[in-house]
Amino acid sequence: MIVLRRLLSSAVSIFILVTLVFFMAHLTPGGPAFSILGQKATPQSVAALNARLGLNTPLLAQYGIWWWHLLQGRLGYSYLLNRPVGALLWSYEVNTLVFYAVAISLSTVLAILLGLAQGVWHGRAPAKLIGAFQLGFYATPPFFTAAILVLVFAVGLHWLPASGIGNPRLAHPGLGSFAAHLVLPVVTVMLLTVPMLSRYFGEAVHEELGKDYVRTARAKGVGFTAILFRHVLRNALRPLVTMLGLSFPYIFTGGVIVESVFNYPGLGWLLWRSALSQDYPVLIAIVLLIGLLTVLGNLLADLVNGLLDPRANYE
Amino acid sequence: MALGAAPARAQSAISASVQDCGSIVIPPGLGIGPGADVTSLNPLLTSSLYNQEAAGLIFEQLLWINRYHEIDYERSIASAVTSPDDGRTYDITLRPWLWSDGAPVTSADVLYAFQLMKAFGSAYAAYGQGGMPDIIGSITAPDAAHVQVVLKRNVNPQWFILNGLSQLMPLPQHVWAKYTADEIWQGQSDPDFFRVGDGPLLPVALNIGIDAVFVPNPLYGGAKMHFSRFVMKFENAEGQELQAVQSGDLDMSNIPFDLYAKAKQLPGDEVVTLPPSYSYHELIPNMANRTTLFFGDVRVRQALADAIDQQRIVDLAMHGLGLPVYGPVPPYPPTFLSPAAKAGKFAVGYDPARAKTLLAAAGFAPGPDGVLQKNGLPLAFTLLIPAGQPLRIEIAESIQQDLQAVGIAMKVRQMEFNQLLAAMVGQPQAWQAILIGMNLGAYPSGEELFAQGAALNNNGYASAEMDQLITMSTDAPGLDGLFAYQDFASAQQPVIFLPNERYSVLVRKGLHGVQDFLNPLGAWAPEKLYCTSGGAP
To answer: Which of A57, A163, B149, B268 has the most Cβ atoms closer than 10 angstroms to its Cβ?
Structure first.
């Protein structure tokens, strides 16, 4: 019942979000015809293209048509890329999914290890060192981190490719090439997310270690390692799961900046591009996806937290 | 009479150490500007230069226009173009040529392309250029190897051949005829749609946002390729392209002007400086805006041109890689320069003192804040420039400084390019001046630019004399009309002409032929690229 109520309120939020984006996008000066026709656009060619794209009908009618098509499972056709939006989103989605799934998984593992160390050694030199790392990298903008990584590992050392998704010289680049192209983008994302996640998790571990149940367990002779991994870890994971739930949409939509810097064809890159060129069908479909995933991410985080701590009550 | 033929050029001898290059990977937009990705392969629908580059690899030109603005028959499907009545009728002879599926290229394919142009109407990317397609009264195919074009009126053959007739190309009627115009539109990004071509390369993949992949056309009738794969890889910015050459991902990249000196010092790779582009920058003063009616006074426009130090723009913003431009015909190649322009004699040129005199003669006097004013209204305006383009920003800042020195206040505002275009094309009260670049056709006439009601005349410029001279340049045989038009436009400054740039390309060691591969008029000649094992041959 609670889940149903949450889903209903989320559906209203998504409806409002999509409606706002639809009208804001269409009312922004410019228009896709100018992106397509470029500098030699004339009033006649713009009018002809707008008619072809269906942009000459009243805005409210376009809005109604968009919803009607969506109810039929059609997301429209990209004005600029000349592909069905559904297929386009899927091809970019796969790239983003792999990229962020790897980045977030590795980040989570590393954040747990660092957070445990920080919590256990709270106030001591190793924890302070970890704190400095967290602060330093969390404050560094990802485009700067990305540029430095490219300069060092691609341009300077020639160890890794600078951009793209596979070796363009090969007809079939293969998994190795794809993995090599993922390294720098993944490391860039990790250098942003690990400090953030580990800081939250470290604080949670420190708090849990100070609680009565830990003292009781130790008094009963349970070993520290067992306490840490059987009890503290489980309880401290809750804020981390919430954070991961919030980042769930990013797993699917990607980071605009990182994907742009590395020329990685993911959904973030597509979002940025469709916004600039006013490719409305693509832009609105991605916003819809972000809305859905945000709802789903929050819901999943709550459910997992409920499993981790049955006392949790989200009503 | 054979028209506009290029003298036979001896093919540069390539040493015996030539190797197959394997895959060649380059970004779109080489020698033009920051790359963008390819989104369409249909030559009739490709309004961006990047798309034109890709489409030009798949479909051979009927008339190949080289960098000297002449027809290169060695690279053209046409073996001759004649005009028996000097301007109205054009007879085109096709040489034997094959589609990649083995079918012969015939005059029916040329007629089919023309019918498609007409069907697309204003959606046809080059609609109106060289009068196409509406200027053609009839187009017939006496036999499979001949096409006859009859125009609705007599025109200057040089103008029509370079700007109009050169748009005609064979398209594979035997493959495409089963599709409607809408289906052809929908298929413009699908490489499968373009499996049959007659150009040097055929597409095998168009990965939107990633790359466009081509392989040599085995039945291509021209010179042999020295590579097995050709990839147009899309990068987001020039800086990225440069890094990609250094990291080995790309074989060539444009060099941003501010990195030119550094690029020359890079070990291993070679810097190739290309001829200046056939284009210019322009400051478009809006004479139709109620707040900037002062631009309608030719003395004000001349004063703007006199106040701007173009050489400083070339030296500082373009790092020496450009040429000042004072009229509508770029200085290189000098093929169409008027005698006065060739001699460097222009009605305008950097002269701040003359700018002040002109402004005083136009009734402007210094106000209390130092800005010139007339009837209490300041000589001030806002210049819109496309967002995120460092070169344009530097040019605008240089102009701002020069104009301030003669008492003109100019603000600079960046705007997304499509928003800027929307304002320029349909909202005369929404902008005061715009700074953009203008690429010209092979014959640099102004019928699309400065004639009253012309497609790209967006700033309200109107002059009966200009209209007359433009008509003379397009309709009367010879170059006298073009010369008179360009001298008049230089004096009128319907837009303030600004320098054109000259790009440099960073090329990986061992890859050669870049100068011949890149044609400033857009079409690439991939057969010119070759590799050697030991660096320069």
So the answer is: A163
